[in-house]
Amino acid sequence: MSLSTPDLPSMDTVFAPVRSQTAFEETLERLGTAIKLGLLAPGARLPAERELCTRLGISRSTLRQALTALAQSGHLHAVRGRGGGTFVAERPPPVDPPSRELLASWREACDVRLSVELGIAALAAARARPEELAPLDELVVAMDDLVEDFPAYRQADVRFHIGLAEATHSPRLVAAATEAQGAMTDLISNIAHPAEILEHANAQHARLLSCIRGRDADAAVRIMAEHLRGTEHVLAGLLPGDG
């Protein structure tokens, strides 16, 4: 599957307003995809922050989060002083291209994870015992200190999501969650892991636990959906093309 298409979106589409729920991730996807498609050419200067915020309909803090993440991943770089600004990197970050099979199936893997983990969020809110949530709180604290060490962060992240599945007391859901996490690990190994993205995701972990502890299944499902769709936006923005 090639990310190139004969019917490319216009720049108005690239900078159209984003949704508020996943504003950070969607902004990252929008800019990352525009870079991959060549709509934002190598060396191109992005519009000023104020203009971007207005056109995208987001706050300056959200925009700066996304720009920082894209700079950390090697897609953008900032230049200070006269004539400075934020520029598209002249060369894409050096990442081994994923297989055609992986590119063809990544959205399906995300769909499977979504169907499994939304159910986990709802059932954990109804069934989880306090002593089952305490270790997950510890993982969230640990992940706050691991945003510069992605392999360790990812290990803790997997343990967190499997721990939520275990809190449903459903062995089949634990097995399904484990399989889904394995598929996601294969996918995210092909993208950069800026600290800004990991910090944002871990803040969602904390909010999710709060809802589960409060037995608020609707809110838990809503936050889990936001969390997983955020991952999809990041993959769409940063997953390399197949050439």
Question: Brief description of this entry?
Answer:
With 243 residues, the protein is mainly alpha-helical. It is built from 10 helices and 2 strands. Strands 1-2 form a two-stranded antiparallel sheet.
Portion of residues in helices? 55-70%
- End-to-end separation in angstroms reads 9 Å
The succession of helices and strands, N to C, reads: HHHHEEHHHHHH
The number of helical segments is 10
What's the alpha carbon Rg, rounded to whole Å? 19 Å
Summing up helix and strand content along with how strands pair, one would put the structural category as mainly alpha
- Principal-axes shape call: globular
Largest sheet: 2 strands, antiparallel
Strand content: under 5%
CATH topology group of the largest domain? Four Helix Bundle (Hemerythrin (Met), subunit A)
Mean pLDDT: 87
In total, the number of strands is 2
- Based on the coordinates given, report the CATH architecture of the largest domain: Up-down Bundle
User: What is the spatial order of strands in the main beta sheet?
Assistant: 1-2
Provide the CATH top-level class of the largest domain: Mainly Alpha
Note poorly predicted spans.
Answer: 1-9
Number of domains: 2
What is the assigned CATH homologous superfamily of the largest domain? GntR ligand-binding domain-like
